[in-house]
Amino acid sequence: MRIEFITWFFSIATLTIFFSITIPVHSQCLEDQKSLLLQLKSSLEFDPDSSVKLVNWTGTDDCCQWNGVTCNRFGRVIGLDLNTDSISGGLNDSSSLFGLKFLEKLDLANNSFNFAEIPSNKGTATLGVLNLRNNSLTGNIMGAFPEGCTLRTLELNGNKLEGEIPNSLANCANAEVLNFGANNINGNFPCFLVNLSELCILVLRSNKFHGNIGCPGIHNYLWPKLQIIDLALNNFNGILPPNFFLQRKAMMDGGNRQPNANHLRFDFSQNIYYQDSVTVVNKGNNGLYGAPLTPCCKEVEVTPPTMDGRQSYTNEDEINWIYITATLGYTVGFGVIVGPLLYSKRWRQCYYKPVDRVIVRILHHREQRSRNQRRRNNINQLRKCQHQ
């Protein structure tokens, strides 16, 4: 019984470890993905002394383990983060970047592309997050946004972009964060974005927008989830229409339904309006006028969404496969090997015979060594008695 228990214990432990180790938990980068990334590295102009990501991309490593690269479980690149990596140029329509057909997040913020224009290539139709802020980019905003655009976050703040916001941006129905701040963009208030029902943050600050605020003929369902709208430092004029903001669902006082909500606050000196978690910023040289929206209650600190856009957003490619495969290893090991040991007598006999022979042999050697040691001890004790 003791030998059988020891055999059983070692069997379970060995099989569990074997199946947990042998099932892969990391997907290696596909060769075509590695090739595209290495081509991208060679085409970009960057300072190797300041770079911490691109400079370490080498052909001998798994590209899914490179700094700044994120892959899905199939080894395809879905995320590229080259934020603040001393890039100074080399991005154009022919860039191998647009060969990454599964790319969902691209972060090139805080580099300097030396007054280059944003490439018009549509090869990144799967993008959900695009961050190009603080890059000295010039020209117009990207050409046309395709039908079925998947973009959720667009960060273009701190460049030198001109022209108007393209009407095709309305194709990005799931857009949540649109930041056009600190550019030279002109045009009227973007009423053509009226159908972006998921929009949480709209930043138009420090541009050349002009005309009235509001959308004639549109009274309801304009950006029901809006939390922040920044109109500062533009050339807007006319009356700031209170109902334009008060009719937004996210700006409404929920009464007993939202006991912790903060109602609207108007401050003449700052021109900041609060209602619940909504902030309307109207600092600077806008020629807007009008009465306060509603009486003051108390302030609320607004925390904008992360760069990933919707916080509840998940992607099946981002599941932690380490835990899943480890669990699968335990299950397969138990079901395939340990299960038959429990329910098949013939299997147990075939399996335990060689294992038992090994264990019996080990125990026999241990017992033999113990006997030899006791014999030597007895001989030594006898010799001591004879000398006495």
Structural notes for this entry:
The protein is α/β, with parallel strands linked by helices. The protein has a domain at 323-386. The chain has five helices and 17 strands. The chain has helices spanning 2-22, 31-43, 242-246, 321-343, 345-387, and strands spanning 45-46, 69-71, 77-81, 87-89, 105-107, 129-131, 153-155, 177-179, 186-187, 201-203, 208-211, 228-230, 235-239, 265-267, 272-275, 278-281, 287-289. Strands 2-3-5-6-7-8-10-12-16-15-14 form an eleven-stranded mixed sheet, with no helix packed on it. A hairpin with a 4-residue loop joins β14 and β15. The longest helix is centred in the last third of the chain and has 43 residues, at 345-387. The protein is elongated. 28% of the residues are buried. Mean pLDDT is 76; it is low at 20-25, 252-277 and 293-318.
Summarize the model shown.
The protein has helices at residues 2-22, 31-43, 242-246, 321-343, 345-387, and strands spanning 45-46, 69-71, 77-81, 87-89, 105-107, 129-131, 153-155, 177-179, 186-187, 201-203, 208-211, 228-230, 235-239, 265-267, 272-275, 278-281, 287-289. The chain is α/β, with parallel strands linked by helices and 388 residues long.
